[in-house]
Structures are given as C-alpha cells and as structure tokens.
Amino acid sequence: MTAPAWGTDEQSGRPRTAQHYTVAPAVGAPEGYVAPGMPGVPVAGYEPVVPATRRRHPRRRVGLAATVAVAAMFLCALAYGCAPLRAEDSVGWLAIAPAAAVSWPLGRLGGRSRVLPLLGALLAAGALFLGQLLLQGRVLHSRGLSGTPPRTLVHDVLAAWRADLRPLDLAFYGIALVGGFILTRRTAVRG
C-alpha cells in the first residue's frame, strides 16, 4: 500500500482543487483561489469583510430601558390622574396608552428579553393604579381634606379607591397587563 501524494485527495489521488493560474495568485489568497477570467471566479475579488464598529448588545441596555419605562409610567400616571374630574368614567378606556408608553422604551432599548414583557405588563398596570390613586386624591382634595397629615391622607385615598373599585376597572387592569406584555414583545428589536 502506498501513501497518497502530497496535495491530493486521500481517496482518489486527484488534486484537492483546480489551480488554474494565468497570472500569479494574490498574496494570501485562500486555498482554492481561481484566477480572474476562469470559471468559478466570484464576481468581486477576494476582500475580507471587517466590521467597522461593533454595536452594543441590547441586553447591556436593559437598565436604561427599565429606567426610561419607569419614568414613562410616572408620566402616564400623572396624565391619567390629572384628567378632568368630569371625565373620570371615560378615562379608564385609555388603559392601553400607559401600556404603549411603557412598552416602547422597553422593547426598543432593551431588545428581546424574557423579563421585559413581564416588566412592561407590571409597569402598565402600575401606571393605571397610580393614576387612579392620584385621581382619588384630587377628588378628596376637592372635598376639602387638604389639611390632613400625609399618613391619614394616603389611608383615605386607598379607602376611597377600594370603595370606588368596579368590575369595569378590573377589565381596565386586564387591558393594561395584556397590552403591556404584548406591546413590549412586538416592539422588541433584535440585537
């Protein structure tokens, strides 16, 4: 039994690749390089692609995304709670607005993560809850309870919120939870 010749395929003894050179191959050309003008030549020359800059992975920006989403939650709660008192019954249908405002920074800045849709759902429901508490505080303030200590005021606001809670409010919380979850997943970008 004889050993195969150097540079051949071990099974058949044929050369590994066709090396047709009409000119000398470029320095550093890969194995199997075929000279220009020969069959099998790529359209462009062999130029290694070097990425210019490396983008930061979205997981590194999860903290920034959560911070911006918490700020959006407080702004939505402020907007929800400062709605005119006469529009108190119709403002509940805007439960999808806090979900959209919270989920956009989570999805765009945070990228795809399994934790962010859950955080989006909780922050959207939190915006709705804080907005309703602020609205109840405004109602109590309009009744003349402005001189009470803060601890008593918080207790009174929570008691008024519990007394005013209706089954339709639970539907609004469901809309905020589901909307925050789904919108965060849909706005997430790949990194």
Q: Report on the biggest sheet.
A: none
Order of helices and strands: HHHHH
Share of β-strand residues: under 5%
Helix content: 40-55%
- Class by helix and strand content? mainly alpha
Explained architecture:
The chain is mostly helical. It has a domain at 62-187. It is built from 5 helices and no strands. The longest helix has 27 residues, at 116-142. The two termini are 55 Å apart. The model has no long low-confidence stretch (mean pLDDT 76).
What is the compact description of this entry?
The chain is an all-alpha fold and 191 residues long.
Notable traits:
191 residues; mainly alpha; 5 helices
Which secondary structure elements does this structure contain, and how are they paired or packed?
Elements: H1 62-81, H2 96-110, H3 116-142, H4 150-164, H5 167-187
Helix pairs in contact: 1-2, 1-3, 2-3, 2-5, 3-4, 3-5
